[in-house]
C-alpha cells in the first residue's frame, strides 16, 4: 500500500504525459479528491453554509421563544383556572353551608308552623267541645224546664178550680194597674 505522500510525489510523474486520464487507484486518489472537494466547498460555500446555519439557529431560537411565551401563557391560564376553581369551590362550600342552614331553618319553620296549626286545632276542638257541651246543657235545661212547667201546670190544673183561677187573674190585673198608676 502506498502512503498519501507517495501519491503527492507521483503527481508530477504521470506516465501518460500529454493525455488526460483517470487514476483508478482509489486509495491513492480518494483523499486528494475529498480534500479538494471539501476545500472548494468550504471556500465557496462558507457564506451559504453560515447563512443556512444562522437561519436555522434563528428559527430554533424563535421557536424556543415562542414555546416559552406559550408556556408562560399556559401557566397564567392554569393559575387563573386554579384561582377560579378555588373561588368556585369556596362558593360551592358557601352554598352548601347556606343550603344546610336554610334547610334547617325551613325544617324549624315547618315544625313551628305544624305545632301552631296543631295548637289552633286543639283550641278549636276544645272550643267546639265547650260549645257542644253548653248547647247540650242548654237543651237539657230547656227540656227539664219544659217538663217541670208541664208538671207544674198539670199540678195547678188539677189543684185549681175556676174560682181560684179567676181570683189569681184579678190579683195579677190589680198588680199591673198599680204599676201603671205609679208609672203615670
From TrEMBL:
Residues 64-127 form a coiled coil. The chain crosses the membrane at residues 20-44. GO terms for molecular function: proton transmembrane transporter activity. Keywords: ATP synthesis, CF(0), Chloroplast, Coiled coil, Hydrogen ion transport, Ion transport, Membrane, Plastid, Thylakoid, Transmembrane, Transmembrane helix, Transport. Its main location: membrane. It is found in: Membrane. InterPro entries: ATP_synth_b/b'su_bac/chlpt. Pfam families: ATP-synt_B (PF00430). One of its GO terms (cellular component) is proton-transporting ATP synthase complex. CDD domains: ATP-synt_Fo_b. It is a single-pass membrane protein. Belongs to the ATPase B chain family. HAMAP family: ATP_synth_b_bprime. F(1)F(0) ATP synthase produces ATP from ADP in the presence of a proton or sodium gradient. F-type ATPases consist of two structural domains, F(1) containing the extramembraneous catalytic core and F(0) containing the membrane proton channel, linked together by a central stalk and a peripheral stalk. During catalysis, ATP synthesis in the catalytic domain of F(1) is coupled via a rotary mechanism of the central stalk subunits to proton translocation. PANTHER family: ATP SYNTHASE SUBUNIT B, CHLOROPLASTIC. This is ATP synthase CF0 subunit I. It comes from Kingia australis (Black gin).
Amino acid at each position: 500500500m502506498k502512503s498519501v505522500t507517495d501519491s503527492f510525489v507521483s503527481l508530477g510523474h504521470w506516465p501518460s504525459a500529454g493525455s488526460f486520464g483517470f487514476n483508478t487507484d482509489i486509495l491513492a486518489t480518494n483523499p486528494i479528491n475529498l480534500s479538494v472537494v471539501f476545500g472548494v466547498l468550504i471556500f465557496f460555500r462558507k457564506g451559504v453554509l453560515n447563512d443556512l446555519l444562522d437561519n436555522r439557529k434563528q428559527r430554533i431560537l424563535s421557536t424556543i421563544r415562542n414555546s416559552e411565551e406559550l408556556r408562560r401563557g399556559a401557566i397564567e391560564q392554569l393559575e387563573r383556572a386554579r384561582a377560579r376553581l378555588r373561588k368556585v369551590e369556596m362558593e360551592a362550600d358557601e352554598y352548601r353551608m347556606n343550603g344546610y342552614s336554610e334547610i334547617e331553618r325551613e325544617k324549624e319553620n315547618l315544625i313551628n308552623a305544624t305545632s301552631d296549626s296543631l295548637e289552633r286545632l286543639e283550641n278549636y276542638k276544645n272550643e267546639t267541645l265547650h260549645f257542644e257541651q253548653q248547647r247540650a246543657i242548654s237543651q237539657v235545661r230547656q227540656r227539664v224546664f219544659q217538663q217541670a212547667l208541664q208538671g207544674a201546670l198539670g199540678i195547678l190544673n188539677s189543684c185549681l178550680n175556676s174560682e181560684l183561677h179567676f181570683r189569681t187573674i184579678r190579683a195579677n190585673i190589680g198588680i199591673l194597674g198599680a204599676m201603671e198608676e205609679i208609672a203615670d
